[in-house]
Amino acid sequence: MQIYYVNGSFEHKSDALISVEDRGFNFSDGVYEVIGFKNKKLLNFNKHVDRLKRSLFNLQIKSPYKNFKSLELIITRLIEINKLCGGFIYLQITRGNAKRDHLFPVNVNPNVVIFAFPQKDLSGISKGVKVGISEDIRWMRCDVKSISLLPNLLEKQKAYEKGFFEIWQIRNKFITEGSTSNAFIIDKLGNIITHPKNNLILGGVTRDVVIEIAKLNGIKVFEKPFSLADIKKCNEAFLTSTTVGVIPVKQVNNIKINSKKKGEITSFLSEKYDNFLNLQINE
Ligand code: PDD
Questions:
Q1: How far is CA 135 from the centre of its chain?
Q2: Are 153 and 269 in the same domain?
Q3: Looking at ligand 1, which atom is closest to the CA of residue 205?
Q4: Do 76 and 201 reside in the same domain of the chain?
Q5: Domain of 8: which CATH number?
Q6: Is the CB of 55 under 6 A from ligand 1?
Q7: What confidence score (pLDDT) does residue 261 get?
């Protein structure tokens, strides 16, 4: 049986209901987070909460929580009720219910929906994936983790139909990020290059952790945009997200990544990232 959390109660899926006047349903007027858990422990929770607070603030959605400790307790309870050990939490907060009007309603309470979903089998991708490229057709506030994901879905679907796992989006000749992940290359000197955290990308929690790990281990990280020409010259490439971790990229469009070092920096980061998560389980 799968139990969902909706606005204060834990409900069986068929009873977990949201109003047709939910602003998320009518306008995509909401934000979300995807948070991993392992051995019933939430992973990188504080980083996800920090981003969630920023997303709510940027869209001027009232926070349902004064103290985010209560959110942690709700999620932990949901994991217990569903008798789960590992997987992911989807958390969605919308502005609330109101008659359809583009202007923000006054005095509405946000709607909160939380449910868990399992880890997909990563065995087919852990050794490396192919990514396509496309124009970045998204808005100029990609830093907000908005539930409005249509451009991402359209591009990911197109990529999938062409046999790619992910799509790397290009704005003004530079790669911004994937449709569901952040994009990285490693140059000939072993330096990591990734788009800076600004309004053109979603600042991934995995991205932040991987950058911290790299720096701690003496690997230089340049947060600057990179182009297709840079990809042609790079030694390694990888992508990151909460749901897949660190995944090597072996081909970008028709460019085969020239991995003379057999992706050793990517493997190192991937292993260290897993260790970082495992440390949180034993905390
Ligand atoms: N997506 N960029 C985009 C556009 C994303 O949608 C995601 C994550 C990331 C990586 O962020 P993080 O490391 O915090 O997961 C970057 C989630 C997993 C999703 O929509 O399912």
A1: 20
A2: yes
A3: 14
A4: no
A5: 3.30.470.10
A6: no
A7: 63
Distance in Å, CA 142 to ligand 1 centroid: 11
Place of tokens 């788009």: 195
The encoded tokens of residue 161 equal 């139909």
Nearest Cα to 138, choosing from 123, 127, 153, 124?
153
- Catalytic residue, from 130, 145, 156, 250: name it: 145
Residue 54's SS3 state is helix
pTM: 0.97
CA dihedral of 10, 24, 69, 81, whole degrees rounded to 10: 20
Residue with tokens 């990232």: 273
Dist CA 165 CA 157 (whole Å): 10
pLDDT over 80 (residue 1):
no
Sign of CA pseudo-dihedral 145, 76, 242, 219? positive
Q: What is the pLDDT of residues 165-187, one digit of tens each?
A: 999 999 999 999 999 999 999 99
CATH code assigned at 194: 3.20.10.10
Q: Is 248 in the pocket of ligand 1 (CB under 6 A)?
A: no
Residue 156 lies in a domain: yes
148 lines ligand 1 (CB under 6 A): no
Q: How far apart are CA 46 and CA 50, in angstroms?
A: 6
pLDDT band at residue 282, thresholds of 50, 70 and 90? confident
pLDDT for residue 56 is more than 70:
yes
**What is the number of the ligand 1 atom nearest to the C-alpha of 48?**
14
Is 261 an annotated catalytic residue?
no
| Banded pLDDT at 10 (limits 50, 70, 90) | very high
- Give the strand pairing for 221-223 and 192-194: parallel
* Domain span including residue 193: 129-281
Q: For a pLDDT cut of 70, what percent of the chain falls above it?
A: 98
Ligand 1 neighbour 205 (Cβ under 6 A) = yes
The total number of structural domains that make up the chain = 2
